[in-house]
Every structure is written in C-alpha cells, then in structure tokens.
Amino acid sequence: MNKVNSWDEVSKLETVVLGSMFDSSFFDGIKNTKVKDTLKKIADETSEDLDYFKEQVSSHGVEVFQASPTELGYKPSILDYVDVNGRLSHSTSPATMLHNNLIPTPPMQPRDNAITMGNKILITDPVFSVHGYVKKFKEWFGEESVDTRIYDGLQPFVRTEENLEEYFHEQNININLSDLKDSDKDELFEKYKLYGFCSPNLTRVGKTCFLDLWQTPDAMKWLSKHYPQFDYKPLNIGGHNDGIYSVLKEGTVISGPWFTHSEHIFPNWEIIYFDQDYGKVQEWFDFKIKHGGSWWVPGEEDNNEFTNFVDTWLSTWTGFSEETIFDINTLVLDDKYVVVNTDNPKLNKILKDRGLEPIYCPLRHRFFWDGGWHCCTLDIKRQGGQKDYGI
Questions:
Q1: 104-117 residue pLDDT tens
Q2: Averaged over 337-355, what is the pLDDT?
Q3: What number of other Cβ atoms are within 10 A of residue 60's Cβ?
C-alpha cells in the first residue's frame, strides 16, 4: 500500500507533515532583551499552537509526522550563525540557495517547497529550509516516494519578466527591463534563471491542477512532461494560491474578494467571497501605516528595537501578510471537518451552513509567519484515487 497518496485538497486526510519551530532557547544569545524576549515569546507560543494542532488532528485519526529543527539539521543557537567577525550571517552559496537569508528560516511551512502529486512528494525548490525535510521524507515514506529532480538542480527555469523585475528590486539591482532591447533582456533571463518554484503555485483538484505562472512559465512544461496525470490550467495571480482561495469540498470554493477569476476556473461551483475581519486587528492597521504592512506581532507595535532586528536579520522569515487571507488558509480533514486558525463567527457560519464543522486551532503569530494551517502542513496521504471533479 502506498504511503504517499494525495490528489486533491478535500478527500479524507490520513497522513500529514507538520512544521516545527525553534526552541525559545535558540534566541538566548541575543543581548537586547526587547528583541530576545519577543522572539522567545513568539517561539513558545508558536510551538504551543503547533502542539495543540497536532493533538486535535490526531484525535480525528490523522497520523502526524513532525521533526524538530535540530532533527532537520538546524543548529541549536542563533549564535551558531555568527561569523568570526561577530556578524549574524549564514552561507549564501548557490548550493544552499539562501540568498539574503542571514539566519535560516525555521521549518514552519513544509508546503512552501514540497507538494504531493499523487504518489510522489515533489520537492519544487532547493532552499535551505527543505534540505532536512528531503532526508526525513525518504526516511518516513520511502526514498522511491520522493522526487528530487528539481531539488538536485538539474532543471533551470526561466523567470517571467514580472518575477525578474521583482528580484532586481529585492536585490537592489538597478536594472529597468523596459529600457532594454529584447536581446539584452534575453541575456538577463538566461543569467538569472530560477532553480525551482513555490509549491503553493499549484492547487490539485483531482484530474485538474491549477498552476500560477507568476514565477516561471517553464513550470507548466516541466510538470506536463513529468506529471502528465494532471490537466494543468494556467493562472496569473502573483502569489501562493492558498492565501487567495481554498477548496472546501467538492463544488465549493472560498475566495478572496478580489479574485474574480474564481467563477471562471470553477464553473458551476459555489464561490464564497470572503475577507478577513480587519476590525479585529486594528493594531495591525496602525502598525501597517508605520511599517508598511509586511508583518505584525500583537503588542510589539512600538518595540522599535525588535522591528529593526527583524527587518535587518530576519527579513526572509516574514512575508507580506497584507496579501494573504489567513482565515481561508484552511486544512480540510474530510467532508465533515475543517481546521481553521481563527474563531471567526462569519467563517464558522459559512462552514456549518455547508455541513462542515470548524476545528479552531489558534495560530497566534500568523501575521508574523505569513501563513495559516494549510501552509504549516503537507498532506501526504488522503483516501481514494484521482477523481474527475468536472472542472
């Protein structure tokens, strides 16, 4: 019997991988107490939330696999990432694909760089945070179940122009593609190829797989060749699909209000347009005005030392939370239960009216980690085979 079997987001879940967080002692080496105490609090509360999630889904018969950061190859202290000159830094060699990640991102979100495509776990991006998971996936589910062809660096992918411009902006490279000739652009596309792509660009719905091409059009070619079991339908929504829409059950999708394409890609399905209740996070709005909206830790809006530390040393830990609707970043357990990260009366009613019972598992620092329970998990095994949902 296959240990790996998942073709969609809604069939009964049997096996899941759950992310993990550094122990709070990881931050003991930080001298500034305003920074250290806040990071330790985030670590402790995040670990508590992960433990509670594990307890809840296990009680519903789901087998949970989880490895600590040290088991995944991370060092136990932030000081282990200090170089001989006392600077907080880590290797930025192409082999580790860390880019500007001065301290490795904790392995909180295994779905960012891996996706189950039927009977294979496909590693889509060779970033540092996935290295330990590759070894664990092979140990847990069998080496034959893990596809590392992209991870091994055998396939470069050409960026979209939008993605390349975004890369130049992030790296402070002063190049404006609109000013260049096509031949010069082609040279840059060749020079700055990607060696992977984000797994949440894909949404599996049985025989259909929706693929956001915001990073690279080459993903469509590669997937069509190596995973022809799926019929790929292109999207261009500019980010992780699961922060914009989620399949709740066959025939029902919950979507951000701005994603009007939902009606076209899910014809004859019920589309529920839903937005977060931002009134309950007024402090985030205030901090957004001050800071730009990329992340938020409740109660630390005026902790400038902490804000500066995060922006300087932990910039790749956070995303851009304004783009994500965390309330719809759900994990479907079966046709009766859905794990949610916030006790939202409006969302609860939507789910219950459709025969779904919300399992509330708080994720208190989702505005810092820029992800919900769907991001923090990777479904490995669901009941049944590949189904045609008629879309």
A1: 889 999 999 999 99
A2: 94
A3: 14
Q: Of how many residues is the chain composed?
A: 391
Distance CA 367, CA 285 (A): 12
CA distance 92 to 231: 37
Query: Most distant CA pair in the chain: distance in Å?
Result: 61
Half-sphere exposure of 261 (CA within 13 A, CB side): 12
| Residue whose tokens read 């992960």 | 50
Q: Give the span between the Cα atoms of 27 and 386, in whole angstroms.
A: 45
Q: Which residues pair with 206 in a beta bridge?
A: 388
Q: Which two tokens stand for residue 192?
A: 């700055």
Task: Count the helix, strand and coil residues of the chain and give each as a percent rounded to the nearest 5.
Answer: 35, 20, 45
The residue among 65, 22, 61, 76 whose CA lies nearest residue 45 is: 22
How far, in Å, CA of 345 to CA of 82, rounded?
Answer: 46
Residue 354 has pLDDT above 60, yes or no: yes
Q: Span 249-256, mean pLDDT?
A: 93
Structure confidence at residue 99 (pLDDT): 41
As a whole number of Å, the end-to-end CA separation of the chain is 29
| The two three-digit tokens of residue 234, written as one number | 């292109």
pLDDT bin (cut points 50, 70, 90) of residue 93 is very low
| Residue 338: CB atoms within 10 Å | 23
* CA 7 from centre of chain: 18
The structure's pTM equals 0.90
Q: How far is CA 157 from CA 98, 131, 163, 294, in A?
A: 18, 20, 12, 27
Q: What is the pLDDT of residues 121-155, one digit of tens each?
A: 999 999 888 999 999 999 999 999 999 999 998 78
Phi, psi of 202 (to 5 degrees): -105, 140
Extract the tokens encoding 193.
């190829």
Structure tokens given for 302 = 């005026």
